[in-house]
Amino acid sequence: MRAYAIRRVLLLIPTFFLLTILVFLSVRFIPGDAVDLLMFRMAESAVGGTGVDRAELERRLGLDVPVHVQYARWMGAILLRGDLGTPLLRPESVGELIAGRLPATIELGLVAVTVGVLIGVPIGIYSAVRQDTIGDYVGRSFAIFGLATPNFWLATIILVFPAIWWAWSPPLRLVRLSADPVRHFSMFIVPGLILGTYLAASTMRMTRTMMLEVLRQDYIRTAWAKGLRERLVILRHVIRNALIPVVTLVGLQVPIIVGGSVIMEQMFAIPGLGRLMIDALFDRDYPLISGINLFFAAAVMVINLLVDVLYAYLDPRVHYG
User: Fold this and answer.
1) What are the pLDDT digits (tens) for 65-78?
2) Alpha-carbon gap, residue 47 to 38, rounded angstroms
3) Phi-psi category of 85—alpha, beta or left, where left has phi over 0 and alpha has psi -120 to 50?
4) With pLDDT > 90 as the criterion, what percentage of the chain qualifies?
5) Are the C-beta atoms of 237 and 220 separated by less than 8 Å?
6) Is the dihedral of CA 56, 59, 63, 64 positive or negative?
7) CA separation (Å) from 224 to 131, 136, 234?
8) Which terminus of the chain is less hemmed in, N or C, by CB atoms within 10 Å?
9) Dist CA 260 CA 192 (whole Å)
10) C-alpha 97: how far from its chain's center?
């Protein structure tokens, strides 16, 4: 196990460098130019900016050198100082902005994962144990609905129709946790439920499939033949083995949660990393976009590594040589 973990960590190093290249170059393909946008805003500001020379502005922003030199400077700052750079239009550093917005994104993700597990796993277990019954058909229909319904469409329905019919809308202003914990967490309930719907649907399908597979194993038939009660067989022998792949599935859902958080934060006015990413894209803020993308990519890599290691601990049949 230790040798496998070391190999996986070493494998993350070239993967990380490849990601940095992809992240850095992909930002440059965004339509529009950050310098033109910045000069336009400076010209419209009260200070003016008509006298600002484009070449001078590019030199100040570090955009006057070739792309490979910009990449070398960026990577050098990350490796030597842990500095993700300075945004073009904001006084704070990229690291400070990420640290300030990260708690809201983590809260939204935790709510989504909790909803997905607490809804998907019980429904999947019941659907497998009561296969081909009305409850099974209802659970499978829920899974199809969750997989087929876009999150942004469901969020739009919840935002629009309750406001028209009942003059109600979910809270759209984040209150500090220390000021009012109830109102603070209430802002994440609705977007977390929406974001967790897809996770619950996929978790339900995986749980049901694995439960049915385990129920057909010989040792389960032996347990039934011994006259053990159904609850004892399900809880002690079936669930323990069937839920091992579900752990992997939940870990693999992290990129989907990250992508969904961008939409949910924008629609529900949550000041998280997803909303910061949208603002950075509109501003063509290359350092901020690159920093957020790199942070998300690194987080997904680390989480996948932890899931693989956890899978080996949960399943004694898995051996990593």
Assistant:
1) 888 888 888 888 88
2) 13
3) left
4) 2
5) yes
6) positive
7) 17, 22, 10
8) C
9) 10
10) 18
- Could you give the CA distance from residue 91 to residue 121 in angstroms, rounded to a whole number? 46
**Does residue 47 have a pLDDT over 60?**
no
Tokens standing for residue 210 = 């694995």
At 95, list the tokens. Answer: 């690291």
Distance of alpha carbon 37 from the chain centroid = 30
Q: At what angle do helices 181-215 and 151-165 cross, to 10 degrees?
A: 130
CB 97 within 8 A of CB 285: no
How far apart, in Å, are the Cα atoms of 234 and each of 125, 130, 223, 309, 314? 9, 12, 10, 26, 18
Handedness of CA 88, 93, 95, 96 (dihedral sign): negative
Q: Would the pTM count as exceeding 0.90?
A: no
| Of residues 216, 193, 213, the one with CA closest to residue 120 | 193
- Nearest residue to 141 (alpha-carbon basis) of 122, 123, 121: 123
pLDDT tens digits along 17-43? 888 888 888 877 777 667 777 777 666
Dihedrals phi, psi of 298, to nearest 5 degrees: -65, -40
Record the tokens describing residue 189, joined without a space.
């309930």
SS (H, E, C) the chain: CHHHHHHHHHHHHHHHHHHHHHHHHHHHCCCCCHHHHHHHHHHHCCCCCCCCCHHHHHHHHCCCCCHHHHHHHHHHHHHHHCCCCCCCCCCCCHHHHHHHHHHHHHHHHHHHHHHHHHHHHHHHHHHHHCCCCHHHHHHHHHHHHHHHCCHHHHHHHHHHHHHHHCCCCCCCCCCCCCCCHHHHHHHHHHHHHHHHHHHHHHHHHHHHHHHHHHHCCHHHHHHHHCCCCHHHHHHHHHHHHHCHHHHHHHHHCHHHHHHHHHHHHHHCCCCCHHHHHHHHHHHCCHHHHHHHHHHHHHHHHHHHHHHHHHHHHHCCCCCCC
